[in-house]
Design brief:
This protein is α+β, with helices and mostly antiparallel strands. The protein has a domain of 145 residues: Thiolase/Chalcone synthase (Peroxisomal Thiolase, Chain A, domain 1, 3-Layer(aba) Sandwich), CATH 3.40.47.10. It contains ten helices and 13 strands. Strands 5-4-6-7-1-8-13-12-11 form a nine-stranded mixed sheet, with helices on both faces. A two-stranded antiparallel ribbon has the order 2-3. A two-stranded antiparallel sheet has the order 9-10.
């Protein structure tokens, strides 16, 4: 008995920002001198990101006087506090979460919504109660008896945990239909303190939402290609616990992401890969395609080096990074959508996926793409 991803939908907020446009905002916000501006420009030029999305229009405006979220002055003061940011999250996150879910559900007939038995929500960029899970039930017209699980504050690997929960539900109950929705407004937590860590974080993160339907493979609702969930494995590298973390500050969530993260991923990823592959009875040479969370170009380079693979085997992750940036937990689902939608290649493919987050935690999974 196994479960599978039958459909994936994605959505982004309306503000589509070219990476060089965002650089202009950041240069002014950090009030950089000529030397530091050149250093920041190099970070943006080498990010492998062409554009990103934000629920906040300010990052794409030419003049701070036009700001709509941040104060309309060159100091951005009074800087929005956490309460204000959470109010913005509550108002805006639901919009793209619903859009992603509706795109996912469009693959099914109109009666399918009433069959959804479980809802799993994922987010690390905002919380409130009653939460986005209840708002989704109401906005999508789900049954009010839908069983709800919320995964919060786990970072970029949260959606793999959600798939793991959905897989367990569908294996235990073959009739279950699980809707997983990840929504992240990462840019809401822009920090203007002039540090290299903030330069890097603000150059990477983006906003987006993704939704998937997980169901028992033998009880599928549509005859389309699917991604069978084969095995999972997770470990954390405790010695690296200070290299990537979130803290709730007075002015939003504060991100710490050091250069050591990529080095640790490169060092440990092969051993972790072998463990998850062993659960599926596979070896690395049998993997046709990779789905590695595009936390940044250095993350992808480190993972590919550690696994001994070429970037061509992880091409969908590079495409997502280029087109969207790092949307935290939603990002890996964007990668899986590209793989699911791909029309070329063999009808059956073995896929190995990874996502990384605070801990330093590495979550991995093996999937099998199968034709209808």
């Amino acid at each position: 008995m196994s479960s599978c991803i039958s459909a994936i939908g994605t959505a982004n907020p309306p503000n589509h920002l070219a990476q060089n446009k965002t650089y202009g905002f950041m240069q002014k916000a950090f009030r950089l001198n000529e030397n530091d501006a050149a250093r920041l420009k190099k970070i943006y030029d080498n990010s492998a990101i062409a554009s990103r999305y934000s629920a906040i229009p300010d990052f794409g405006l030419d003049d701070f006087a036009e700001n709509q979220f941040f104060p309309a002055n060159e100091n951005l003061e009074p800087f929005p506090d956490t309460k204000m940011r959470m109010g913005f999250y509550r108002e805006n996150a639901i919009k793209i979460a619903v859009a992603a879910a509706q795109k996912c559900l469009a693959a099914f007939d109109a009666s399918f919504t009433g069959k959804i038995s479980h809802l799993v929500t994922v987010s690390c960029t905002g919380m409130y109660a009653p939460g986005i899970d209840i708002d989704l039930v109401e906005n999508l017209g789900l049954n009010r008896s839908t069983e709800r699980t919320c995964i919060n504050f786990m970072g970029c690997y949260g959606s793999i945990n959600a798939l793991k929960i959905a897989d367990s539900i569908c294996r235990a109950n073959p009739k279950a239909k699980v809707l997983v929705v990840s929504v992240e407004l990462c840019t809401l937590h822009f920090q203007k303190e002039n540090t290299v860590e903030n330069w890097i974080a603000n150059s990477l993160f983006s906003d987006g939402a993704a939704a998937v339907i997980v169901e028992n493979t033998d009880k599928r609702s549509i005859a389309q290609p699917c991604l069978s969930l084969e095995s999972f494995h997770a470990e954390y590298i405790y010695d690296s616990r200070n290299e990537m973390n979130w803290q709730i500050g007075n002015f939003g969530y504060e991100m710490i992401l050091t250069s050591k993260v990529a080095k640790q991923i490169q060092k440990y990823i092969r051993g972790l890969a072998d463990q998850v592959l062993q659960k599926s009875g596979l070896v690395l040479a049998e993997i046709d395609q990779f789905a590695i969370h595009p936390g940044g170009k250095k993350i992808l380079d480190a993972a590919e080096t550690g696994l001994g693979i070429c970037a061509c085997k992880n091409s969908m992750a590079h495409q997502v990074l280029q087109e969207f940036g790092n949307m935290s937990s939603a990002t890996i689902l964007f990668v899986l959508k590209k793989i699911l939608d791909e029309k070329t290649g063999p009808a059956t493919q073995n896929i190995l996926g990874f996502a990384f987050g605070p801990g330093l935690t590495v979550e991995s999974l093996v999937l099998k793409k199968q034709s209808a």
